[in-house]
Design a protein that fits this description.
The chain is α/β, with parallel strands linked by helices. It folds into two domains: 129 residues, Rossmann fold (3-Layer(aba) Sandwich), CATH 3.40.50.720; 103 residues, Dihydrodipicolinate Reductase, domain 2 (2-Layer Sandwich), CATH 3.30.360.10. Helix content is 33%, strand content 26%. The strands form two sheets. The chain has a six-stranded parallel beta sheet, with helices on both faces. Strands 7-8-6-9-10 form a five-stranded mixed beta sheet. Helix 4 runs parallel beside helix 5.
Amino acid sequence: MTKQVALVGGTGKLGGIIHAVINEMDGFEVSRVLTSSSDVSEIDGADLVVDATTPQVSIEIVRAAIDRGINVLVGTSGWSAERIALVRPLVESAGTGVVFIPNFSLGSVLGSALAAAAAPFFPSAEIIEAHRDTKVDSPSGTAVRTAELIAAARSEQGPVSAPHADQRARGQQVSSVPIHSLRRPGVIARQDVIFSGAGESLTFTHDTVDSAQAYAPGIRLALPFALEAQGVVVGLENMVDLGIQVRK
């Protein structure tokens, strides 16, 4: 039986990519597309809600889906570990599943996993992320997730070294890692994770040059996974074997 998807934010950039991917998939159909002016009750009866909105709207969509017992796939950026913790008890109580994907790109997920693997070996880590000038949130969800993975990997070593972090020009600290956000016309998405130690540095760079092609494989993996998910799941790495141990 074809599963009915309520796509919220379907007229946006990411929403359009998700819509196109679903149209090419067997077993899934976009039965309704919601915009900012839609009533949230339009998700009623869907088998899966896919959220590609804004950080301000996303929390309402997730809560509305949980209340209705519908699983949710969240592609909206801006969901930090602290924010996810707010909805985790609701998900567990309702017995539903919510899957948060900070980035649908397999290359991005691998880059973050490599950064986590390197984190215990360097005292200093900083992230520079760049997106198009129309992106409304900063730092990006990908950068936040990467910083959280770095911190988790350094649980025995402690926080990274971030001198003068009280100065605004030093970026926003997430899990002790300074993040510097660039918003530029003509950019899709780029992230540099820079590790520094005595006498050396190591940089992991991921650059998205075509979002439609980069995100499509991850979206195809995430849709059936989200449909059957139980509880809260964060990250595309839960759907692929990266060959790298990533601490949750």
